[in-house]
Amino acid sequence: MFVTNKFKTIMVKYKRILLKLSGESLMGEKQYGIDEKRLAEYAAQIKEIHELGVQIGIVIGGGNIFRGLSGASKGFDRVKGDQMGMLATVINSLALSSALGSTGVKSKVLTAVRMEPIGEFYNKWKAIECMENGEIVIMSAGTGNPFFTTDTGSSLRGIEIEADVMLKGTRVDGIYTADPEKDKTATKFKEITYDEIYHRGLKVMDLTATTMCKENNLPIVVFDMDTVGNLKKVILGEEIGTLVHN
Predict the structure, then answer these.
(1) Which long-range contacts (CB under 8 A, 24 or more apart) does 105-108 make?
(2) CA-based end-to-end distance of the chain
(3) pLDDT tens, residue by residue, 114-170
(4) CA distances from 164 to 18, 27, 181, 232 (A)
(5) Alpha carbon separation from 185 to 166, 200, 228 (Å, rounded)
(6) Cα angle 195-142-36, degrees, rounded to a multiple of 5
(7) pTM tops 0.85, yes or no
(8) By three-state DSSP, how is residue 232 classified?
(9) How many C-beta atoms surround the C-beta of residue 125 within 10 A?
(10) Element (H, E) at 213
(11) Hey, CA dihedral for 231, 237, 242, 245, is it positive or negative?
């Protein structure tokens, strides 16, 4: 896909993306909640690719505020814990929407459970219409159901909005043979198939999310979102991170 700004014509690799952001990454250097500096960096990177003409859908996790599964292990009812996690993703989505607005970029928060006027109730056609009109769509509250992670939510939304790719922004620069933060001998994959992820037992996403992407042929690029400039590099087709495909 080619886009033209007032200086030159630029080729971007993807026309429409689903960007999955980690809630934990929003903590930045804090122990809890949202680091305003990290939030501003994310907004600036997203604005940069938005100006290239890329249509952007975003799903954010809520682990910086509350994680339902860990809450269940501490005595919370699992359903209520997951509902708390869904609300945490709405808080993060509103924060990102506000940060994008401060840079002059229009965005819309859609929610998987009804909570107007905080956000409009999600549907595929509303999301696509907004993206085609130049707005960034932030899809919050997961799937609206307990027992599903935001990875599964992002897979579902990516498939629904007919994204060309899911870009999974993490704290590491791709998929490794083992956890590089724990195993210094771990080596990075340039690309890997879904089947190989299954066979190696790699924890890229939960099994439901991975299976949905495989069955619907939605490729994933796992990359380091915390390094400023990386998002644009992925969009321009630079080989950073790890590509997952069939």
Answers:
(1) 105/43, 105/46, 105/47, 105/50, 105/136, 106/134, 106/135, 106/136, 107/135, 107/136, 107/137, 107/138, 108/135, 108/136, 108/137, 108/138
(2) 23
(3) 999 999 999 999 999 999 999 999 999 999 999 999 999 999 999 999 999 999 998
(4) 8, 29, 30, 16
(5) 28, 16, 26
(6) 105
(7) yes
(8) helix
(9) 9
(10) helix 207-215
(11) positive
Q: How far apart are CA 187 and CA 69, in angstroms?
A: 30
Measured from the Cβ of residue 51, the count of other Cβ atoms closer than 10 Å reads: 13
* Tokens coding 30: 């804090």
**Side chain identity at 148, as an amino acid letter?**
F
HSE, side-chain direction, 13 A CA sphere, residue 213 = 32
| Contacting residues for 194 by C-beta, under 8 A, at least 6 apart | 210, 211, 213, 214, 244, 245, 246
The closest alpha carbon to 186, from 228, 245, 234, 242, belongs to 242
Q: Where are the beta strands (DSSP E) in 27-135?
A: 55-60, 107-111, 120-121
Q: What residue has token string 């006027």?
A: 117
Q: What is the three-state SS of 145-178? A: CCCCCHHHHHHHHHHHCCCCEEEEEECCCCCECC
Residue 161 has φ and ψ, to the nearest 5°, of -85, 5
DSSP 8-state secondary structure symbol assigned to residue 188: B
Residue-wise pLDDT for 15-27, tens only, equals 999 999 999 999 9
